[in-house]
Amino acid sequence: MTTAHELDTPPRPWSADPYADALRTGRGPLHLRRDDGWLLPLDVERWCTRADSVDRALLDLCEGAVLDVGCGPGRLVAELAARGTPALGIDVSEAAVAHTAHRGGQALLRSVFAPLPGEGRWGTVLLADGNVGIGGDPRALLTRAAQLLAPGGMLIAETAPFDVDERVRVRIVGGDAAETDPFPWARIGTPALLRAARPQRWRPVAQWSADGRCFVALRSRTSNSRAEPPKSTAVLSSQRPRNPSPDSVVADA
Ligand SMILES: C[S@@+](CC[C@H](N)C(=O)[O-])C[C@H]1O[C@@H](n2cnc3c(N)ncnc32)[C@H](O)[C@@H]1O
């Protein structure tokens, strides 16, 4: 039977042991398990190492201040910080935020759907490593990303490496069979993400794949209808070395 306490306390799967333990050891196995038993491996070893060449090429496209949504243990935020790019990670996992800070990146313990610093002023929003699945509704996440970005800002999303568009209920399952409560997640490939983005007037500016990973860059609506290519000179000039506080990351870009 569901208790009043359970209703007051929504499940917090990414704060639970399987994910925190994997981040602590830097090792899996760690999976998302669908209700029908299908397992999606989570690449926790890669997340816990330094940004690789595919990550670095992705970060080369970032413009202005970067918000890394679901930053995990922070390899992307740490790489951006090392480049002197203003960047903030947000994550709902205490362990992820602590790891990001330990690596020299700035991070806030916050859901992407909660109020965030710099709403409407971020130059780039990142949804890497399948984070376009957060919340189980990519259209709602696109809407939220548009609220966070400055007009004409860039969303870079990593998509599933095949044509899929599914909303699922999953649990996080660790190697010792510990598992979380179920929560909504989504998997979406590039064609379906582009279809979802069109009615919201996102402009596709790039799609690419590297090392089995797929990415899409979309520009949010501007008052000016002309689509800019990625990476304007004005944005490059904002990438100066600094180490600002979370609230000032976007203001300083
Ligand atoms: C698939 S992992 C991505 C790992 C990460 N991108 C990295 O570089 O290590 C999903 C991440 O999103 C976080 N997350 C889940 N729901 C979230 C939400 N509503 N807002 C922000 N982060 C969330 C999880 O805690 C987890 O760290």
Could you please describe the fold and organization of this structure?
There is one protein chain. This protein has 253 residues and is an alpha/beta fold. Helices cover 26% and strands 27% of the residues. Helix 2 (17-25) packs parallel to helix 6. S-adenosylmethionine binds at residues 14, 42, 47, 69-73, 75-76, 90-93, 96, 111-113, 128-131, 134-135.
What is the SS-derived class? Answer: alpha/beta
Count of strand segments: 11
Computed over alpha carbons, the radius of gyration is: 18 Å
Q: Bound compounds, please?
A: S-adenosylmethionine
Largest sheet: 7 strands, mixed
Strand order in space, largest sheet: 5-4-3-6-7-11-10
Average pLDDT value?
88
How many helices? The count is 9
Key descriptive features of the protein:
globular, 7-stranded mixed sheet, 26% helix, 253 residues, 4-stranded antiparallel sheet, binds S-adenosylmethionine, disordered N terminus, alpha/beta
How are the elements arranged and paired?
Elements: H1 4-8, H2 17-25, E1 30-34, E2 39-41, H3 44-47, H4 53-60, E3 66-69, H5 75-83, E4 87-91, H6 94-102, E5 107-109, E6 122-127, H7 138-148, E7 149-159, E8 165-174, E9 183-188, H8 190-197, E10 203-210, E11 213-219, H9 233-236
Parallel strand pairs: 3-4, 3-6, 4-5, 6-7
Antiparallel strand pairs: 1-2, 1-8, 7-11, 8-9, 10-11
Helix pairs in contact: 2-6
S-adenosylmethionine binds at residues 14, 42, 47, 69-73, 75-76, 90-93, 96, 111-113, 128-131, 134-135.
Quick summary:
With 253 residues, the protein is of the alpha/beta class. The chain is 26% helix and 27% strand. The chain is globular.
